[in-house]
Specification:
Blueprint lengths: L7 E5 L5 E8 L5 E3 L4 H5 L19 E4 L4 E4 L2 E2 H7 L2 H10 L5 H13 L8 H6 L6 H15 L10 H23 L13 H10 L10 H14 L6 H11 L4 H12 L7 H14 L4 H9 L20 H17 L4 H15 L1 H5 L6 H12 L6 H22 L27
Antiparallel strand pairs: 1-2, 2-3, 4-5, 5-6
Helix pairs in contact: 2-9, 3-9, 3-18, 4-7, 6-7, 6-11, 7-8, 7-18, 9-14, 9-17, 9-18, 10-11, 10-18, 11-18, 12-15, 12-17, 14-17
The structure holds carboxymethyl coenzyme *A.
Length: 431
């Protein structure tokens, strides 16, 4: 029987030399030219600063069509998952490639509950950080420290499933503990009777002297927020996780690398930056139009934070869901946040403005998420930690896919050198 047609591309190089390169086709008919043999055959490399158009891997985890505004995890649409699933089920799906059966779901949940505590000795670390510490600094340091408490993670043959469960469960505890420490309150331990998101809200907002009932609306909202952040294929932090992991570094080290990459304001740090931007506009009289003009004129290199995306050239499907959710959660809590009005007016101005239209800049996942977190009582400097908590299953899934792929090689890009040619060393007295 004839196999699928093998496609190839021809590249003509200066001097007329030709290279024939295989073409790889994905399940959604995405096409790539496989250039791996190019250097050996021709001496040429490809140059693509910021990896604007470079596929670093094949992957079966997430499908994203930025032109159409489509996002799917393992083939399921983000809209359906956000509506009907919960974060634990989506984590299982991303990591294992399929939705769990009832029995699989129960044993996954039990394992997450069982591993929710962190070693008591680790509590001292929280005390060692100055009160001004950004929670992302604490989170990344604590995740790296987990590898010290589970040294078997350094053994590449140790149980991957156990480390995955540990990290998924403990990052939630670490995130909540770092908040409690930052406000000087006693740590609230996880409660085994609560589900993943409810348990997080309990650790964040309960105090020892009072009962705390988790609001089902907030629990649902948190599940949805985390689902929407759970994976986004080869973004900056996920690529970092893969890059760190490709050297053989353990899961905790790779995830800590991802957390640090996420921190920047162009990536996960944008949710904090959006609220800071909206606060600034409010403090200066709420003139959204003037701010947008400053952005267009690139005054002080300003950007409209929460707008634009490397891959989406259409409305980010996550932002669509979040905008609706923002109205629902605020209405339920009876909150009228002036920042939401400013955000909506900025969106309206931007979406009609030629600068944003021509550059295809639309609201992204970070534009409305911060307003929801704020309404839930989560402080601004914790927003990127919330993003990290959500992105965790995606990072884990990519790390796992990478270590299980027998074709994985250490990540090691090339470069074009533009420095000095060979020159003679001049002793210091003669310079
Ligand atoms: N406001 C104003 N102008 C913008 C913006 C923005 N938010 N984003 C891009 N541009 C302009 C940019 O100035 C450039 O203009 P010109 O061609 O005149 O120089 C053009 O659009 C292309 O921008 P770029 O920086 O080359 O595009 P990129 O694909 O490298 O950057 C981005 C993508 C997300 C870093 C960028 O859109 C940005 O900085 N957005 C604001 C930060 C933000 O919201 N980040 C969260 C991204 S979504 C969550 C996540 O996955 O992390």
């Amino acid at each position: 029987m004839a196999g699928p047609e093998k496609l190839s591309a021809k590249l003509t190089l200066p001097g007329g030399k030709e290279a024939s390169l295989p073409v790889v086709v994905g399940t959604e008919d995405e096409h790539a030219v496989d250039i791996r043999a190019l250097r050996n055959e021709t001496g040429y490399i490809t140059l693509d600063t910021g990896y604007m158009n470079t596929g670093s891997t094949t992957s079966s985890i997430t499908y994203l069509d930025g032109e159409q505004g489509i996002l799917r995890y393992r083939g399921y649409s983000i809209e359906e998952l956000a509506e009907h699933s919960d974060f634990v089920e989506v984590s299982y799906l991303l990591i294992n490639g399929k939705l769990p059966t009832k029995a699989e779901r129960a044993s996954f949940s039990t394992a997450l509950t069982r591993h929710s505590l962190i070693h008591e000795d680790m509590h001292q670390f929280f005390a060692g950080f100055p009160p001004t510490s950004h929670p992302m600094a604490i989170l990344s340091a604590m995740v790296t420290s987990l590898s010290a408490y589970y040294p078997d993670s350094l053994d590449r043959n140790s149980s991957v499933d156990l480390h995955i469960t540990r990290i998924l469960s403990k990052v939630r505890t670490i995130a909540a503990f770092s908040y409690k420490k930052s406000i000087g309150q006693p740590l609230i331990y996880p409660k085994n009777s609560l589900k993943y998101c409810a348990n997080f809200l309990h650790m964040m907002f309960a105090v020892p002297s009072e009962d705390y009932d988790v609001s089902p609306v907030l629990e649902k909202a948190l599940n949805q927020l985390l689902i929407l952040h759970a994976d986004h294929e080869q973004n900056c932090s996920t690529s970092t996780v893969r890059m760190v992991g490709s050297s053989g570094a353990n899961l905790y080290a790779a995830i800590a690398g991802g957390i640090l990459a996420l921190w920047g304001p162009l990536h996960g740090g944008a949710n904090q930056a959006v609220i800071e931007m909206l606060e600034e506009i409010r403090a200066s009289g709420g003139d959204s139009k003037k701010f947008v003009e400053d952005v267009k004129n690139k005054r002080d290199n300003r950007r409209l934070m929460g707008f634009g995306h490397r891959v989406y050239k259409n409305y980010d499907p996550r932002a669509k869901i979040l905008k609706k959710m923002c109205d629902e959660v605020l209405a339920h809590l009876g909150i009228k946040d002036p920042l939401l009005d400013i955000a909506k007016s900025m969106e309206e101005i931007a979406l009609k403005d030629d600068y944003f239209i021509s550059k295809k800049l639309y609201p992204n996942v970070d534009f409305y998420s911060g307003i929801i977190y704020r309404a839930m009582g989560i402080p601004t400097n914790m927003f990127t930690v919330m993003f990290a908590l959500g992105r965790l299953p995606g990072w884990i899934a990519h790390w796992k896919e990478m270590v299980e792929d027998k074709d994985t090689k250490i990540g090691r890009p090339r470069q074009i050198y533009t420095g000095e040619k060979l020159r003679k060393y001049v002793p210091i007295d003669n310079r």
